[in-house]
Write a structure and sequence with these properties.
Strand content of chain B: 25-35%
Shape of chain B: globular
Distance between the termini of chain B: 30 Å
Structural class of chain B: alpha/beta
Number of domains of chain A: 2
Oligomer: heterodimer
Number of strands of chain A: 19
Largest sheet of chain B: 6 strands, mixed
Number of helices of chain A: 7
Order of helices and strands of chain A: HHHEEEHEEEEEEEEEEEEEEEEHHH
Radius of gyration of chain A: 21 Å
Low-confidence stretches of chain A: none
Order of helices and strands of chain B: EEEHEEHEHHHEHEHEEH
């Protein structure tokens, strides 16, 4: 892998117009990655999902060079119908389109930050990989007091000519005071066996509201990692919803720093998995000042030999009094081969806090099935009704009604 | 309509029904009374198709072998069980459940499925008759319902599905006197010459409101005595012990 990385890195650098200093920084990140390699189970954060092994078993040898010198055609058929929205389109990791057609042009600024790198606390070797290979990075700045009229959908497409590739991309968001953004990440993959490595950074200023929805619905054989760092000032709100379903492997990581008083973070998620899919949600909520709140609800429906992992950490700093932290995960295992792992972590250094966690897993209630079947529903209908009922309260946590309906339709929950 | 011949049932190697026989004809109301553990609920579970029992003997429903049918097929053919403990189903809207159930049964019977408006009209009319608070229909199925509301919901389902044979498994337990009357009224208005009822109860009280044609005493998994409505009164006086 080392030789491949170096060769692909040199090829990539050739196409970029970088200063010697920037090249040095990228080289440094590459060397870090080469030294550490892909995360494996020896690392606590990856003990349930050995990425190194997953890549070996499902992809084999990866290549890291992507030709970003020519444009890709945007396939408009993947665009969501019936919901007016702004768009960013990534194809094979290359930004093909940024279109805020519904917004006031002077209220949103798009800033080229390609020369910067990710520097997150808690980040792993994938951050180095991302820094070494991302070509372009933009910051979307929403100006003070501006609330986007329509949601922004970020399309992640990989076209079918690409396989066994590592694709890296980065985006930064800054929501200035009193601004708001609704964001949907939508994955449509027509290719197989690639590894997508995504880093987002969100900066929420006072009173800003971020609604961050991640939708991985369509069947594909790709491996994905998505890291989201969210820094929050006073009174800001972040709401994250994850529908984790389509990919072979997907790990979503939410790292949230509640820096300002009365800021709050909500993370809700659904794992709906079949076959031998393996998905994970890793959250770290850092309560760093007093009067902050976090709430997490994760529900799983696992078929066949699928596996879901939820590692949720609530950290409460010594001066973060009056913290309110909550997390709950529930799983329905539909097959004796399916597996759910929950690892709640509460690390609390303040004494006046309210924190709780819970986790439960079980099978479908046979008595409930009998009840529904005795009313004329067949087994399949009864099962569907029970599963949809089980998932409904997580979907109901989505505060945007348009997007809630979109996601309900995707899961097949009928009103 | 229903012919039970020498029905035996065991669960986990424990014998529950021991050679039970019973005939029910259209237009009849039969009451089965018996002490705890006599096999009353097992009988209603087996008739409606609950899994987990080892069953032998014969059960014919309209001349066809009932034991061969799946639970939902029995519902389609017109068997209805009002549960002793109706289940709470979180996240499932009561109205949606009722419509899905009604249309599944109508479809199987070759009748036209109802659209949303037709259904709402029907369910409104039926719930009014049962004094069932319509607002409850928009809530999750049985979640947060009182004991009485759950039982009324069972009778509402019964009246929507219009079954041929209705089995009421201790529907009177946990009901106050007003709810009991409403439930009994519901049953009485459904009674006609084409359908039949099997009422399972501990107490004679319900039978003051739903007049049975036959009363059977169930002990240790078989019927030990059958008679008219007077038998229930006799039971109430003497208790079950004298029938052992």
């Amino acid at each position: 892998m080392k030789e491949q990385l170096k060769k692909d890195f040199d090829n990539n650098i050739k196409n970029l117009n970088l200063s010697q200093k920037d090249i040095e920084i990228k080289k440094f990140c590459l060397d870090n990655f080469i030294e550490k390699g892909f995360p494996n189970r020896k690392e606590e954060d990856w003990k349930f999902s050995d990425l190194n092994q997953l890549i070996k078993n499902n992809i084999g040898e990866l290549s890291f060079y992507n030709d970003h010198t020519s444009t890709n055609k945007v396939d408009t058929s993947v665009f969501v119908d019936g919901l007016e929205h702004n768009k960013i389109v990534f194809i094979n990791g290359r930004i093909e389109k940024i279109d805020f057609e519904y917004e006031k042009k002077d209220q949103i600024e798009i800033i080229d930050q390609s020369e910067t790198i990710n520097e997150f606390k808690n980040s792993n070797s994938l951050s180095d990989l991302n820094n070494a290979f991302t070509n372009k990075c933009f910051k979307i700045l929403v100006k003070k007091g501006y609330q986007l009229i329509k949601p922004l959908i970020i399309y992640h497409s990989i076209n079918s000519k690409i396989w066994s590739k590592n694709i890296n991309l980065r985006l930064n968001f800054e929501l200035d005071k009193d601004s708001s953004l609704r964001l949907i990440d939508l994955f449509s993959d027509t290719s197989e066996k690639n590894f997508l490595n995504i880093f987002y950074n969100f900066e929420l200023k006072e009173n800003a509201v971020l609604k961050n929805y991640k939708v991985d619905k369509f069947e594909n054989k790709n491996i994905k990692y998505s890291f989201n760092n969210i820094d929050q000032d006073k009174n800001s709100v972040s709401e994250t919803f994850i529908l984790s379903s389509g990919s072979k492997f997907f790990k979503n990581e939410i790292n949230c720093n509640l820096n300002g008083e009365y800021s709050s973070a909500f993370v809700n998620g659904i794992f709906s998995l079949n076959n031998d899919k393996h998905h994970e949600i890793r959250t770290i909520i850092n309560h760093l000042t007093k009067n902050t709140k976090s709430y997490q609800l994760i529900k799983s429906v696992l078929e066949e030999s699928s596996k879901a992992v939820y590692q949720g950490k609530i950290f409460v700093n010594s001066d973060a009094q009056k913290t309110d932290g909550y997390q709950l995960s529930k799983a329905i295992l539909l097959n004796k081969e399916s597996e759910f792992n929950a690892k709640p972590e509460l690390e609390i250094y303040a004494d006046d806090v309210k924190c709780s966690h819970g986790s439960a897993s079980g099978s479908l209630n046979e008595d409930s099935i009998f009840y529904l079947m005795s009313r004329g529903l067949n087994y399949q209908q009864s099962r569907e009704l029970l599963i949809n009922g089980f998932l409904l309260d997580v979907v109901e946590k989505i505060t945007d009604s348009q997007i809630k309906n979109l996601i309900k339709n995707m899961i097949g929950i009928k009103e | 309509m229903l012919k039970i011949n020498n029905l035996n049932a065991t669960i986990d190697n424990k014998s529950i029904l021991n050679g039970l026989s019973l005939d029910i004809n259209p237009g009849q109301v039969h009451a089965i009374m018996g002490p705890n553990g006599s096999g009353k609920s097992t009988l209603s579970n087996i008739l409606s198709g609950k899994k987990g029992y080892e069953v032998s003997g014969e059960v014919l429903f309209e001349e066809k072998d009932l034991l061969e049918l799946e639970t939902e097929e029995r519902a389609h053919k017109g068997i209805f069980l009002a549960f002793q403990y109706p289940l709470e189903i979180p996240g499932v809207n009561t109205n949606i459940f009722l419509k899905t159930s009604l249309n599944a049964v109508r479809k199987a019977r070759g009748e036209k499925e109802l659209d949303a408006i037709e259904f709402l009209k029907l369910v409104k009319e039926k719930s009014k008759k049962l004094k069932f608070d319509e607002e409850k229909l928009n809530r999750q199925l049985n979640v947060g319902f009182s004991g009485g509301e759950k039982k009324k919901n069972e009778i509402l389902q019964m009246s929507l599905l219009d079954p041929k044979l209705s089995i009421l498994d201790e529907t009177d337990s946990g009901l106050d006197i007003d709810a009991l009357k409403v439930v009994a009224d519901g049953v009485n208005t459904l009674r006609d010459k084409n359908n039949a009822f099997l009422i399972i109860t501990h107490y004679q009280r319900l039978l003051d409101y739903i007049k049975p044609d036959f009363v059977h005493v169930l002990m240790n998994g078989k019927i030990v005595k059958s008679g008219g409505p007077d038998l229930a009164l006799e039971l109430e006086k003497k208790g079950y012990e004298n029938f052992n």
